[in-house]
From TrEMBL:
Any one GO CC term of the record: membrane
CDD domains attached to this UniProt entry: MPP_YkuE_C
Top-rank lineage group of the source organism: Bacteria
GO BP annotation list: lipid A biosynthetic process
Swiss-Prot/TrEMBL keywords: Hydrolase, Metal-binding
Protein name per its UniProtKB record: Calcineurin-like phosphoesterase domain-containing protein
Amino acid sequence: MHFKKEFIITLSLAIMLISRIYFEIKTIDIDKISVKTKKIPQNKEFKIVHISDLHNKKLPNNSINLLDDIMKLNPNIIALTGDIIDAKTRDFDNIYNFLDNLIKINKNIYYVSGNHEWKNPKNQQFIKGLKNRKVKIINNTNRIIKCKDFSINICGIDDPYTNHENIDKAFNSIDNNNFTLLLSHSPDIIFKPYNLNCDLIICGHTHGGQIRFPFLGAIIAPGQGFFPKYDKGIFELERNLLLYINSGLGTSRMPIRFLNKSQISFITLTGE
């Protein structure tokens, strides 16, 4: 009888844990962040939907609910910060279908590569598909986005985790009077001896640790080891530079998330 009771308790806990993991993977949160800046006229806004680390994940409900949410957010741009495919992805139809639906919402899609794109032997084929869809690939380059009363510098670096970044090219000839947004796959860029001439860095890569615990946060993150300082969310660095880390939509290595739901981010730049 005692063994039977222990078995039922253990089984119940296992079912609860598995259910929680399934819920974390399948449920998508929208992390809403507001950044105030004097480089945008007072009360004006610039809105960004930030998607990272999809890892070729097939989204629930054919991504209809997520796409509806993105449409309602009405962003100025959509930023993709790498690992949209996985290193093992060979068929890109799932990702291309998702991108085609995103393009119907907003054609202003900006992309930088992640380490999984670099590891994928069919990466050039994937990039060709992005170019065919007019996705703006900004690896080690920059663009100016002109709004009615202000402009935004959007800079991108190729994946710093695999040492493919070129900061000089990314920031070449930008106007420092404009708000400067940097897209990077990995937060590793802040550990390198660069003068990051920007106001906000948005990235992914860490997955928020995938597994998190109360009070401790992420257990491990690539490039930072155990109990990483920069795991997910927004951080203020030196010289008022802000770093934002998106915990991503997908998973890698193990298809597990715990206390760390899949997410996209909605970042609003507001003039003050």
